[in-house]
C-alpha cells in the first residue's frame, strides 16, 4: 500500500450498527479536506464498510479494513436487533487490535492518532500504549452522554433496583428525568448486559480522551455543555451534522416532487430510523389514525409494507399517501409541506427535525430514545411523546390533531424556530461549531 512516509497516519474505529459509521466517515472526510496531508485507515465490519463506502469508492486518503463481526459460524438472524450487536460487543477490542496490527505490519507505518466511536472505551488504553492522542466521537446528544459519564453517581442516588418514578434532581437541569426514562442498562434492567457494560466503561474512560467530539451545538444546551467541559480534557460540539456533514442528496422514489403537490405544513412524515421495525399491531394502529385524521403522509417504511400493513391501507395510500423504502429525510423535513414527524427519536432525527422546523410525535424504542423523547417534550418543547408509550389509534389521532391543527402545535413550531436559528448560527464561519471543528483538526493533525 502506497502510504506517504511523511504523512500522519490516523486509525479510525467505527461502530458498525445504527447511524454510527456513516457520520464518522463524513466527519473523517471533512477532516481530510481540512488537512489533506493526513492518511486514514478506517476499520469496521465488512458489512458496515460495504454499506458506508457504497458511494465512495474513490477516497484515496481513506483506506478501509474489515474487522470480525463477532458472529458465531452459521449464525442466522431471527429478528432481534440487539443480538448481533451483543456478539459484536463481545468481540471487542480483540477484533480491532488484530486488524490494526495487520495494517501496521503491512504498511510499516505506526498510527499517530486514534479516532473512535465514543462507545470504544478501550481507546483510552490503546492510545496510552501507543502514546498518541485519542479522539472519540459521540454520535448522539450531550445530555445522553452526561448520563453515561455520571452512571456511578446515578446508581448511588437511585439504587440499581430503585423506584422507577424517582427523578434525577441531583443533576443540574435533569429534574424532569425519571429513572424509567434512562437508557436501558443504567439502572432498573439489564445493567450487566454487554451493551450496558460497554457504555459504563465508556463513561469512565472518556475523561482520559484528548478531546471528546459530539453531534450537537453548544447553544442548544449550555448548562450540559459546561458540565461536560468540566469533566473532559476537551469537549467539542461539532454539529448538527445535518448542517456540517449533510448526506449526498438522492431521491429515487420522487418524495420531494410528491411533497411539492401537498398543502403547507399538512403532511405527516414517518420514519423509525435505521434499526427498528415497530410490531404489526402498532403499524396498523398508526395507519388507522392517519386515515381517521385524513392528513397526507409520507412513510419511510423498513420491511415489506405489503406484509406488515393492512392491505386496504396500502391500496388507499396511493391516493393520499406515499410509502417508500428510503426517503431523503433531511430534505423532506426541510420541505414546507411537512407538518409533523412521527419518529423513534434517534438523535439524528431530532436534530434534522429541529433544522427543518418540524414538531415531533415520538414512539421511542431503545437506547437513549426515551431520554431524547423527554428532552424533546420537557426541555425544548418541540414535540410530544405518544400517550401510553406505544402507537395506538386514539393516542395518535389526538397527537396528530394537536400538532397539525391547534395553537399548541403552532407554539411548538415557534419554539423549534428559536433552536433552528441557534443551530444555523453555530455553523456560520464564526460560530461555535466551526471554531470547535478547527480546534479538532489541529488536534488530529498535530498542527
Ligand atoms: C441510532 O439511530 P437510528 O439510526 O435508528 O436513527 P437516527 O439517529 O434518527 O438516524 C437515522 C438517519 O437515517 C436517515 C435520517 C437520519 O440521519 O435522516 N434516514 C434517511 O435519510 N432516510 C430514511 O428514509 C430514514 C432515515 C440509535 F438507534 C439512536 O438511538 C441513536 O440516537 C442514533 C445516533 O447515535 O443511532
What do you see in this structure?
With 447 residues, the protein is an alpha/beta fold. 45% of the residues lie in helices and 13% in strands. It contains 20 helices and 13 strands. Strands 3-2-1-4-5-6-7 form a seven-stranded parallel sheet, with helices on both faces. A six-stranded parallel sheet has the order 10-9-8-11-12-13, sandwiched between helices. Helix 12 crosses helix 18 (393-405). The longest helix has 20 residues, at 407-426. The protein is globular and about 65 Å long. It starts with 8 loop residues before the first strand and ends with a helix.
Quick synopsis:
The chain is an alpha/beta fold.
Topology:
Blueprint: E1 9-13, H1 21-34, E2 39-45, H2 46-52, E3 62-67, H3 82-90, H4 94-107, E4 113-117, H5 123-130, E5 134-138, H6 142-149, H7 151-158, H8 194-205, E6 212-214, H9 222-231, E7 235-237, H10 241-244, H11 255-260, E8 267-271, H12 280-293, E9 297-300, H13 305-308, H14 311-320, E10 321-324, H15 329-333, E11 338-343, H16 347-356, E12 360-362, H17 369-379, E13 383-385, H18 393-405, H19 407-426, H20 432-445
Parallel strand pairs: 1-2, 1-4, 2-3, 4-5, 5-6, 6-7, 8-9, 8-11, 9-10, 11-12, 12-13
Helix pairs in contact: 6-8, 6-9, 12-18, 18-19
The structure holds uridine-5'-diphosphate-2-deoxy-2-fluoro-alpha-D-glucose (U2F).
Amino acid at each position: 500500500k502506497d502510504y506517504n512516509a511523511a504523512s500522519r497516519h490516523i486509525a479510525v474505529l467505527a461502530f458498525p450498527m445504527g447511524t454510527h459509521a456513516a457520520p464518522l466517515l463524513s466527519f473523517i472526510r471533512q477532516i481530510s479536506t481540512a488537512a489533506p496531508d493526513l492518511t486514514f485507515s478506517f476499520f469496521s465490519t465488512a458489512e458496515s464498510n460495504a454499506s458506508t463506502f457504497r458511494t465512495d469508492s474513490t477516497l484515496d486518503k481513506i483506506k478501509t479494513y474489515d474487522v470480525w463481526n463477532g458472529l458465531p459460524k452459521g449464525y442466522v438472524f431471527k429478528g432481534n436487533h440487539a443480538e448481533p450487536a451483543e456478539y459484536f460487543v463481545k468481540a471487542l477490542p480483540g477484533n480491532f487490535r488484530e486488524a490494526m496490527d495487520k495494517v501496521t505490519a503491512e504498511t510499516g507505518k505506526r498510527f499517530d492518532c486514534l479516532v473512535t466511536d465514543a462507545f470504544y472505551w478501550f481507546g483510552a488504553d490503546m492510545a496510552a500504549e501507543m502514546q498518541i492522542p485519542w479522539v472519540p466521537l459521540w454520535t448522539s446528544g450531550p445530555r445522553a452522554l452526561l448520563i453515561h459519564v455520571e452512571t456511578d453517581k446515578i446508581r448511588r442516588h437511585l439504587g440499581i433496583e430503585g423506584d422507577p418514578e424517582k427523578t434525577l434532581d441531583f443533576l443540574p437541569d435533569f429534574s424532569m428525568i425519571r429513572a424509567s426514562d434512562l437508557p436501558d442498562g443504567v439502572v432498573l434492567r439489564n445493567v450487566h448486559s454487554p451493551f450496558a457494560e460497554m457504555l459504563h466503561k465508556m463513561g469512565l474512560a472518556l475523561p482520559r480522551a484528548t478531546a471528546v467530539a459530539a453531534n450537537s451545538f453548544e447553544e442548544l444546551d449550555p448548562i450540559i455543555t459546561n458540565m461536560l467541559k468540566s469533566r473532559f480534557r476537551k469537549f467539542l460540539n461539532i454539529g448538527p451534522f445535518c448542517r456540517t456533514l449533510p448526506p449526498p442528496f438522492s431521491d429515487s422514489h420522487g418524495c420531494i416532487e410528491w411533497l411539492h403537490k401537498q398543502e403547507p405544513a399538512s403532511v405527516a412524515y414517518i420514519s423509525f430510523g435505521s434499526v427498528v421495525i415497530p410490531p404489526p399491531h402498532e403499524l396498523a394502529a398508526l395507519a388507522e389514525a392517519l386515515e381517521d385524521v385524513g392528513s397526507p403522509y409520507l412513510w419511510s417504511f423498513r420491511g415489506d409494507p405489503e406484509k406488515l400493513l393492512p392491505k386496504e391501507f396500502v391500496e388507499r395510500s396511493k391516493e393520499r399517501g406515499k410509502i417508500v423504502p428510503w426517503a431523503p429525510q433531511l430534505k423532506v423535513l426541510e420541505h414546507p409541506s411537512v407538518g409533523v414527524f412521527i419518529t423513534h427519536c434517534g438523535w439524528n432525527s431530532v436534530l434534522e427535525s429541529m433544522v427543518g422546523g418540524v414538531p415531533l410525535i415520538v414512539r421511542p424504542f431503545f437506547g437513549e430514545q426515551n431520554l431524547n423523547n423527554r428532552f424533546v417534550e420537557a426541555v425544548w418543547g418541540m414535540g410530544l411523546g405518544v400517550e401510553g408509550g406505544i402507537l395506538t389509534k386514539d393516542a395518535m389521532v389526538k397527537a396528530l390533531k394537536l400538532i397539525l391543527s391547534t395553537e399548541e402545535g403552532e407554539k411548538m413550531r415557534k419554539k423549534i424556530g428559536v433552536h433552528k436559528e441557534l443551530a444555523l448560527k453555530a455553523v456560520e464561519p464564526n460560530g461555535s461549531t466551526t471554531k470547535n471543528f478547527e480546534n479538532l483538526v489541529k488536534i488530529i493533525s498535530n498542527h
